[in-house]
């Protein structure tokens, strides 16, 4: 029987979702915990990959479990997992739906605060920046759904069969004080470090280091006109994953309360 697990995790102490040798990953921790509880090896498949230190306020994985579950697996799994991984729902599925390949939309939110705040340091990305040009930043964000090929916004584009992404939503918000920002983007798929590269470019535009025309030229020519470092991973959240047959609201308090801030669409 195939099960979908609806989870969330804080990513700052993990080297991403994907299991890899020599580092601590979310996938490995969950697989080891499930295997111990069920007393048999369990392999899981996630809805995607997140970079090291990136959060997921909503994430799904699937697992095939042969034995009947005649106990409260949700309760026991949450007790056994570390504090920074939570399981909200375990859903029995019909057939063999796939957590990664069946997803039709993924949403990400990136949070920035421009003043030092110890209570935001693990939840939002700190950039001590003043006098950002929000109008120019908003203008380049609005370009994103108009283009499909994001080759210029990927660290290793040649490892993909193609670099086409159907960006459905892109918006930039600021709080009334102007010292916290939220970048929101939705697409059917994302490339390696794509959102963090875009965010880094948006900040360059806000600081006057990259023009509107230069930003759009990268979308047109598929080549970076000016190199920039990807934005810090800390402020990035995979915030919603949607399937044709499953559309659940995120359960995490931070993402809901943060999105509930009186954000102003610039």
From TrEMBL:
Reactions mediated catalytically: uridine(38/39/40) in tRNA = pseudouridine(38/39/40) in tRNA
The Pseudouridine synthase I TruA alpha/beta domain, residue ranges: 148-244
EC category: isomerase
InterPro entries the UniProt entry points to: PsdUridine_synth_cat_dom_sf (IPR020103), PsdUridine_synth_TruA (IPR001406), PsdUridine_synth_TruA_a/b_dom (IPR020097), PsdUridine_synth_TruA_C (IPR020095), TruA/RsuA/RluB/E/F_N (IPR020094)
Binding site for substrate: 108
Family: Belongs to the tRNA pseudouridine synthase TruA family.
Gene Ontology biological process terms in this record: tRNA pseudouridine synthesis
GO molecular function, one term: tRNA pseudouridine(38-40) synthase activity
Sorted UniProt keywords: Isomerase, tRNA processing
Assembly behavior: Homodimer.
Enzyme Commission number(s): 5.4.99.12
Coiled coil: none
SUPFAM superfamilies: Pseudouridine synthase
PANTHER family: PSEUDOURIDYLATE SYNTHASE (PTHR11142), TRNA PSEUDOURIDINE SYNTHASE-LIKE 1 (PTHR11142:SF0)
Active site: 51
Lineage: superkingdom: Bacteria
Keyword tRNA processing annotated: yes
Keyword Isomerase appears in the UniProt entry: yes
Function: Formation of pseudouridine at positions 38, 39 and 40 in the anticodon stem and loop of transfer RNAs.
Protein name: tRNA pseudouridine synthase A
